[in-house]
């Protein structure tokens, strides 16, 4: 229990750091680095999902590992050129929802270890255990994180999955600006004239989803009073006086979450 509670403390610290990074900083680099304080992994690759004609490609990888750059490039190159089509976990990219799954959850271990993907790719590079984290919002995949452990270590624990689930909402909202699938981004031009801050837009999204001030505060790791201040700023800038009028106005303008 003490170890679990300590994990929750680290999660809170990671979330606060992510929410305060500079706009030009790639949140994936920060997250991969900070994640090592929460759970061990030997190789992590964080991709952006490029959605085109309903097909998803993993692009712009950010890597954090215990290996040299030659190993990293070889591992990524082999996946892209030889093994992507053989992966037994590739289907999760098409589910259009956030999912946190171990490879050992996807297939019976005997079947998994007899697959060509495992024997010629995963095992060849010295890995044994894999944790797949797919991030999606509003029916669109925006990013994919895969963590690997070598054969000398234990599989990822249930608590690791729980921790990643807790962090998923924070990661999704930090990544939305990087996603290569923003088909509705132009629909929100009507908001430009109000000069809302990034945080105010985040709060506005959650209001549109009918979340309470407490729920918004928990997701963004801010107090209810801070949420109220952001809401008051939004009301003042948009010349509105209530949540209901704000939501009605957004529906009228055919608002799409950014």
UniProtKB/TrEMBL annotation:
InterPro entries: Sig_transdc_resp-reg_C-effctor (IPR016032), Tscrpt_reg_LuxR_C (IPR000792), WH-like_DNA-bd_sf (IPR036388). GO terms for molecular function: DNA binding. Residues 189-254 form the HTH luxR-type domain. Pfam families: GerE. GO terms for biological process: regulation of DNA-templated transcription. PROSITE patterns: HTH_LUXR_2. Keywords: DNA-binding, Transcription, Transcription regulation. PANTHER family: DNA-BINDING TRANSCRIPTIONAL ACTIVATOR DEVR_DOSR (PTHR44688). This is Regulatory protein, luxR family.
């Amino acid at each position: 229990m003490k170890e679990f509670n300590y994990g929750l403390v680290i999660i809170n610290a990671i979330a606060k750091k992510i929410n305060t990074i500079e706009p030009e900083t790639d949140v994936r680099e920060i997250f991969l680095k900070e994640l090592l304080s929460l759970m061990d992994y030997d190789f992590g690759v964080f991709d952006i999902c490029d959605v085109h004609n309903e097909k998803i490609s993993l692009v712009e990888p950010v890597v954090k590992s215990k290996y040299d750059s030659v190993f990293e490039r070889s591992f990524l190159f082999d996946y892209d050129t030889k093994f992507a089509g053989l992966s037994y976990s590739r289907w999760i990219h098409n589910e259009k929802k956030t999912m946190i799954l171990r490879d050992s959850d996807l297939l019976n271990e005997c079947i998994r270890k007899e697959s060509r993907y495992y024997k010629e790719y995963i095992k060849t590079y010295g890995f044994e255990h894999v944790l797949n984290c797919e991030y999606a919002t509003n029916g669109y995949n925006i990013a994919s994180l895969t963590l690997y452990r070598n054969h000398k270590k234990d599989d990822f624990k249930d608590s690791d999955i729980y921790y990643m689930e807790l962090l998923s909402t924070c990661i999704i909202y930090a990544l939305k600006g990087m996603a290569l699938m923003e088909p509705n981004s132009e629909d929100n031009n009507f908001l430009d004239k109000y000069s809302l801050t990034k945080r105010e837009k985040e709060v506005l999204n959650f209001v549109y989803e009918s979340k309470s001030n407490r729920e918004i505060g928990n997701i963004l790791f801010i107090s209810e009073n801070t949420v109220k201040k952001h809401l008051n700023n939004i009301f003042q800038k948009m010349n509105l006086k209530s949540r209901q009028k704000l939501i009605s106005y957004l529906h009228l303008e055919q608002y799409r979450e950014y």
